[in-house]
């Protein structure tokens, strides 16, 4: 089983893996030990047995040399760090968190969890945050990439990169793979980044990898895009990115929550009324609100470096300097796209 899980490992990587697994076993018995300083006492060595879980941990830690570009992360974003987006969060809880945390229950009931989710909506609304939180709250690893990184002019390079991405994801499963800018996987003449032949090969390789993911293999793929109408329809067929989740700008309550999240730790004067700010920031995205808070802080600093508090007037000044990155027109467009995607589904 370990041989299968070490696809892409060269000899030196395997040597590093076994060494790391042995060190994991030592740390299990003596968590505080500084292995640089101390040699391991013989009685510990005698009691030592390397468990399968030590190899699981070591697999996460040892980065195979041929897969350096595939970074395994453990994000520190949770559901509580995301304001608004209740519906998107609930769907990811049910679609990603439950199956990854309780694969046995799904198997028993014969339910096939979805393998692919597509988050779509304007930039800065929290799509990346949602994918990270889905991974973290599922106690899964997170591997992020964007399609422009997968489009290589060198023949075969893109396919190899995608194969490494999925192989690494299976090695460290449970894993959430996040692919941003999914819309750039359309041929260049269609507004995408790649040469037509390259793009087609990349799409086909991703599809083949997703088709090859057996259900309950504990790998889930989350794609994100600002332009869902450009996505190759082959990517949206059943068994692929077939769970479509719209991620739009937050409502007033969501904005209130996002302002609270981003002002945490900021000394606010008593007159600061975040509810009022939330009401006055129609169509602001999470990223816009984060920027607003930062500007309010800078305005306070400009008054004097000793300034101890950020006041409501700093927020008003910041509000005058910024505006919503999402327009009414964009919202109308997304509403139309939503209808089309729904009727196609
Ligand atoms: P997207 O992937 O949709 O373009 P991101 O998730 O990268 O947007 O958001 C960019 C930044 O904006 C985040 O790192 C976060 O600081 C802030 N942000 C966006 N949406 C939210 C939200 N719903 N709650 C809290 N912060 C948010």
TrEMBL record:
Name of the protein in question: CDC48 family AAA ATPase
The keyword Nucleotide-binding belongs to this UniProt entry's keyword annotation: yes
A molecular-function term among this protein's GO annotations: ATP binding
Keyword Plastid found: no
Domain (AAA+ ATPase) ranges: 113-251
Parent-protein residues present: 398 to 742 of 768
GO CC annotation: cytoplasm
Family: Belongs to the AAA ATPase family. CDC48 subfamily.
Key words of the record: ATP-binding, Nucleotide-binding, Repeat
């Amino acid at each position: 089983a370990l041989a299968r899980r070490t696809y892409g490992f060269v000899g030196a990587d395997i040597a590093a893996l076994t060494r790391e697994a042995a060190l994991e076993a030592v740390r299990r018995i003596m968590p505080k030990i500084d292995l640089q300083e101390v040699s391991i006492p013989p009685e510990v060595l005698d009691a030592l047995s390397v468990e399968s879980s030590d190899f699981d941990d070591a697999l996460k830690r040892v980065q195979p040399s041929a897969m350096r570009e595939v970074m395994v992360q453990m994000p520190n974003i949770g559901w509580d760090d995301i304001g608004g987006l209740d519906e998107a969060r609930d769907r990811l809880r049910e679609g990603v968190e439950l199956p990854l945390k309780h694969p046995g229950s799904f198997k028993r009931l014969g339910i096939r969890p979805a393998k692919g989710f597509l988050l779509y909506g304007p930039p800065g609304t929290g799509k990346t945050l949602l994918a990270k939180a889905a991974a973290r709250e599922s106690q899964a690893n997170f591997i992020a990439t964007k399609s422009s990184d997968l489009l290589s002019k060198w023949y075969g390079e893109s396919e190899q990169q995608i194969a490494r991405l999925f192989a690494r994801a299976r090695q460290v499963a449970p894993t959430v793979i996040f692919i941003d800018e999914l819309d750039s996987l359309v041929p260049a003449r269609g507004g995408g980044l790649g040469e037509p032949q390259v793009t087609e090969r990349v799409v086909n390789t991703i599809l083949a990898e997703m088709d090859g993911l057996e259900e309950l293999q504990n790998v889930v793929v989350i794609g994100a895009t600002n332009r869902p109408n450009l996505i190759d329809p082959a990517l949206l067929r059943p068994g692929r990115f077939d769970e479509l989740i719209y991620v739009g700008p937050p409502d007033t309550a969501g904005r209130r929550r996002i302002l609270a999240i981003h002002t945490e730790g900021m000394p606010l004067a008593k007159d600061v009324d975040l509810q009022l700010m939330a009401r006055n920031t129609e169509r602001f995205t999470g990223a816009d609100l984060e920027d607003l808070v930062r500007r309010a802080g800078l305005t306070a600093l400009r008054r004097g470096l000793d300034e101890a508090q950020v006041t409501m007037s700093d927020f008003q000044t910041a509000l005058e300097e910024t505006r919503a990155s999402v327009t009414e027109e964009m919202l109308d467009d997304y509403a139309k796209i939503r209808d089309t995607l729904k009727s196609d589904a």
